[in-house]
Amino acid sequence: MTTLTSGPVCPAPRGVYDRIQLGHGSGGKMSAQLLRDHFLPRFGNPHLDALGDGAVVPVSGGEVVLSTDTFVVHPLEFPGGNIGHLAVHGTVNDLAMMGATPRFLSAGFVLEEGLPIEQLARILDAMQEAAADCGVHVVTGDTKVVDRGKADGLFVNTTGLGLLVDGFRPQPKGARPGDAVLVSGPLARHGMAVMAVREGFAFESEITSDTVNLAPLVGALRDELGASVHVLRDATRGGLASALNEIAAASGVGVELQDHRIPVPGPVEAACEMLGLDPLYVANEGVLVAFVDGAVARDAVQILRSFPQGAEAAEIGGVVADHRGMVILRTGVGGTRVVDMLPGDQLPRIC
Amino acid sequence: MCLGIPGRIVQLSHEAGLPMGVVDFGGVRREVCLAYVADEIDVGDYAIIHVGFAISKVDEEEARRTYAVLREMGELEELEWIREAADAAESVDVPSQAPPRPDGTGGLGEARG
Amino acid sequence: MKYLAEYRDPALARALVDRIGGTATRRWTLMEVCGGQTHTIVKQGINEVLAEAVEMIHGPGCPVCVTPLEQIDRALHLAARPDVIFTSFGDMLRVPGSECDLFQVKSRGGNVRIVYSPLDAVDLARDNPDKEVVFFAVGFETTAPANAMAVWRARELGVTNFSVLVSHVTVPPAMVAILEAPDNRVQGFLAAGHVCTVMGWTEYDPLASRYRVPIVVTGFEPLDILEGIWMAVKQLEEGRHEVENQYVRSVRRDGNRPAQELVRRVFQVVDRGWRGIGVIPESGLGLREEFRAFDAERKFELDAIRADEPAECMAGDVLRGRIKPFQCPAFGVTCTPESPLGAPMVSSEGACAAYHRFGRLNRAAAGG
Predict the structure, then answer these.
(1) Which residues, other chains included, contact A190 with Cβ-Cβ below 8 Å and sequence gap of 6+?
(2) A158 forms bridges with which residues in the sheet?
(3) Is A258 in CB contact (< 8 Å) with chain B?
(4) Contact between B1 and A204 using a beta-carbon 8 Å cutoff
(5) How confident is the model at residue C358 (pLDDT cuts 50, 70, 90)?
(6) Distance from the B100 Cα atom to the nearest Cα atom in chain C, whole angstroms
(7) Is ipTM > 0.85 here?
(8) Phi, psi (rounded to 5 degrees) for C248
């Protein structure tokens, strides 16, 4: 091989990168290499491998559910998981809450120039793991790269497609007076797990994010209780309080909660106390709220508890015809208070 | 200004001369400044923490004593209620309601356990 | 959590409620001067449960609410400067200034950060030597020792890019202002447990005897508040007017001496304006002359910034207990948590926000 001793330096890109470069989003060789080295090995399936502009997927007659969500959490990695877990579980759970069986996902990425490829690998590993666990396939996707400073490391959007089962249509306006309100597990774990690693608030704890696949719980409720399940919602941003307010407003009913029945783990409560936050408003990633016919409340709780991610399911209140659109809490002291929607983010308080 | 919560001292340290420590709040730990309680605090003690500073050592003896008084009062109130219920039952021929408790429970025949 | 959960026991709470009801032969009017206590009272529905025996008036106990409009505007001005990292406790972020709030300044590019402890702000200054870090030192006497230590440490460690914008207020002068008002209805006080943890309660003896009002130093959990109220009602029924301590697990008569010491070294007593009330002489703390290098008001030119309160906001009357929030014509109409006219609707301790969030359901219990 001849060695050049003078002349122009070859401008062709080198083969190995430890960080994302702008070229990775340009659609050229670097993009193809990124796809080949990192995306395809993890998500590979006949639909994706075809690398068409879109994916053709089979669905039987009837209706399908589409759901989309964009994930921008910071930091990207936190106790109990990373943005990759959220990206898959989040959309899978949304499909499940509509009563659909989640089947296919698309994944669109915006990567920040300078993102360590090792970190991208960990996030993609998480997505692969979560997708396998949920029984869904990532069938199409997209990757763009933006200048350093224009994205918090990585943003990802997942859009999911799920198949509806005949007759099972839980919806936000489905709540009725006499319904029982259930949660599948303890609150506020995700929000506090992320808070623990956020600059300015750092604290040590065993709190881990509750990000998990909730579709099996929905499947079991559907199979055993069918139309007695009136509303399903995963309580994410804004916490339980926001979800309940939305449902109360949509259904035109009042919701009453019992303070002592709402499950909050000790360390989570301690962290909330320390920062002056109310667990009812803190984000979850693995808690579903169900409004079921009062008559089947006990059965529903038992069904949820038969799953590891529903082991602490509880009945926390019920639906009434009074104070329509409002959520009320009965306190330990015997008083009541309104659990309102917050205007924006909950702020840590010192007073 | 008020948000102060009790935590247990689990570690003592110094940061460039400033007495610091790690406090455990029921499973959550954070570093706090112990400068204002340095003379009286040791590992295992409880302190009230406000914005990252210990402002007092919890007097566990006092706390136990006064809590016992509260509990005793709680029991007395309970006995009062039972007595009232018994009086009410005796004074009429027809079965009637016992005075309802503020929490809505009450009435004759309800076992308290 | 130890020393916390026990004080939320529902059965004991109900026993105390019964006890208060059994002790009171008429309705009494009490005031708490502490945002944290207001928060517990309204969140737990204590005022609702005690409605027959006690009317609770919520005093100006929220330092966020009483920070003058002018000071907020100065904070906003600093936060908008490109060379400044503006740090604050969370509650201040949505307090409205004359034009906007810290959140909006942040969205326009201002470097605004929430911190948990004032020492975090000093660390931030050390980590960002090319920026000026300003900390919004708001609070009652409880927070003064922490803020004093931040300034002290900054000086000790030679951190010159750190300063504080001070808006400290003290409780006893506010209580005097309330007691001196000709239309005052307050018959007894719950004194703020953590303010007294730092300061002790000796300052309250002369108030109790001069104005003949019981003052009970009270904690923050439901059982603390109920026990404090019961002790106050008992005094009123027995015709006594003393200072008593309910919060014995944290408060000693002389308070925390080392903390008072450092506060005295770093701060001095000054006149302070209370939003909605006006200037109360000797009711605040300001940095001593020797610490002027850490005083944001001296370091940056803020004198020109002046402000007037919006006429519609009746924060002053609410803070003094003259009216209940829902008696303000703007309440829930032009003034809501989403678009607040004044601070008591923004801060989660503010009486207006507390009523809007928690108390909408049961006005009758609030004495309205």
Answers:
(1) A80, A209, A210, A211, A282, A283, A284, A285, A286
(2) A69, A107
(3) no
(4) no
(5) low
(6) 12
(7) yes
(8) -60, -25
Task: Tell whether A332 lies on the interface with C, counting CB pairs under 8 A.
Answer: yes
Residues comprising chain B, all counted = 113
Give me the pLDDT at residue C362, please.
Answer: 56
C-alpha pair distances (Å), C210 with each of A5, A76, C264, C283, C321? 97, 60, 26, 19, 21
Indicate if the alpha-carbon torsion angle C165, C170, C173, C176 is positive or negative. Answer: positive
Contacts of A200 in chain C (CB under 8 A): 113-116, 120
CA separation for the pair C229, C368 (Å, rounded): 20
* Residue A11 DSSP one-character state: -
Q: Which two tokens stand for residue A56?
A: 């053709």
Q: What is the pTM of this model?
A: 0.85
Of A202, A334, A351, the CB nearest to B2: A351
**From residue C122, how far is each of A72, A111, B36, C126 by CA, in Å?**
29, 33, 18, 6
Question: What CA–CA distance (Å, rounded) separates A93 from B106?
Answer: 43
Worst-scoring range by mean pLDDT, A201-210, A244-253, C225-234?
A201-210
Are residues A203 and B27, on separate chains, in Cβ contact within 8 Å? no
- Diameter of chain B measured on Cα atoms: 79
Does the pLDDT of residue A4 top 60, yes or no? no
Using the predicted structure, report yes or no on whether residue A153 has a pLDDT greater than 90.
yes
**Residue type (1 letter), A266:** G
Average pLDDT (C86-93) is 87
Q: Which of B22, B8, B40 is closest to C3 using CA atoms?
A: B8
pLDDT digits (tens, 9 = 90+) for B91-105: 655 444 444 444 444
C188: nearest Cα among C144, C152, C236: C236
CA distance C9 to chain B (A): 10
- For the beta carbon of residue A193, count every other beta carbon within 10 angstroms: 24
- What is the secondary structure of B47-62 as a DSSP string? EEEETTEEEEE--HHH
| DSSP assignment letter at A80 | T
Of C299, C188, C181, C180, the C-alpha closest to C242 is: C188
Q: Both tokens of residue A129?
A: 């793991």
8 A C-beta contact, residue A341 and residue A245 = yes
Query: Is it true that the peptide bond before A177 is cis, omega within 30 degrees of 0?
Result: no
Using CA atoms, how far apart are residues C368 and C365, in angstroms rounded to an integer? 7
In the structure, what pLDDT confidence band is assigned to residue B66 with cuts at 50, 70 and 90?
confident
Kindly give the pairing relationship between strand C267-274 and strand B46-50. Answer: unpaired
Strand-pair category, B28-33 with B18-25: antiparallel
The answer to whether the Cβ–Cβ distance between C14 and B36 falls below 8 Å is no
Is a pLDDT exceeding 50 seen at residue A5?
Answer: no
